[in-house]
Amino acid sequence: ETGVTQTPRHLVMGMTNKKSLKCEQHLGHNAMYWYKQSAKKPLELMFVYSLEERVENNSVPSRFSPECPNSSHLFLHLHTLQPEDSALYLCASSSYGGGPYEQYFGPGTRLTVT
Amino acid sequence: AQSVSQHNHHVILSEAASLELGCNYSYGGTVNLFWYVQYPGQHLQLLLKYFSGDPLVKGIKGFEAEFIKSKFSFNLRKPSVQWSDTAEYFCAANTDKLIFGTGTRLQVFP
């Protein structure tokens, strides 16, 4: 059982569709993250939110749009994606505030862009 | 740029064999180190972590890792693997953000 949940677990979308990924954390953390996991590549950090403010955007294309309405919820809005965007998208959460911290991950959303 | 290297991409072992997975990081300052595991179909879970103090850290399920500062290494070890250890293992280093290696896929055969 994980304290970080993600929905949907699987998503197939066309290149012209608009969809959203949802993440919810039940751990009382104040930082949330989106990562992209592709085969044979390191996890790529996409976005970081701390106290609901975006603190990092790792040169992610604008077709990915994050939203963090509160410290427990994080969304990733998708539109006009490309086939190379197919990957496992992971959400994570942690405490945040200058000290060492570990991140807790959700199960991921397996995205396929057709 | 900061990076984490895992040199073993795919490791195949028989049960009861000993395991050592290599991890090297490139960062000269204070760094926190982690090993995460991803079992088939499951989410990433923390195996163990090093922040400071004793460089030999013990984690869950009999895993341990040794931080060797002079070698910029944080290798993962287990003296006797089990079939249930079949998974993908990721080393990560945290300076101002968490940076992951490419992962090592471990297959353990009965």
Structure description:
The complex is a heterodimer of chains A (114) and B (110). Chain A contains no helices and eleven strands. Chain A is an all-beta fold. In chain A, strands 2, 4, 5, 6, 9, 10 and 11 form a seven-stranded mixed β-sheet that branches. Chain A has a four-stranded antiparallel β-sheet with strand order 1-3-8-7, with no helix packed on it. In chain A, a hairpin with a 6-residue loop joins strand 4 and strand 5 (44-50). The termini of chain A are far apart. The mean pLDDT of chain A is 89. Chain B is mainly β and 110 residues long. Chain B contains no helices and twelve strands. Chain B has strands at 3-5, 10-14, 19-21, 24-26, 32-38, 45-50, 56-58, 64-68, 73-78, 87-94, 98-100, 104-109. In chain B, the strands form three sheets. In chain B, strands 2, 5, 6, 10, 11 and 12 form a six-stranded mixed β-sheet that branches. Chain B has a four-stranded antiparallel β-sheet with strand order 3-9-8-7, with no helix packed on it. A two-stranded antiparallel ribbon of chain B has the order 1-4. Chain B starts with a strand and ends with a strand. The model of chain B has no long low-confidence stretch (mean pLDDT 93). Classes of the chains: A mainly beta (114), B mainly beta (110). At the A-B interface, strand 10 of A face strand 5, strand 6 and strand 11 of B.
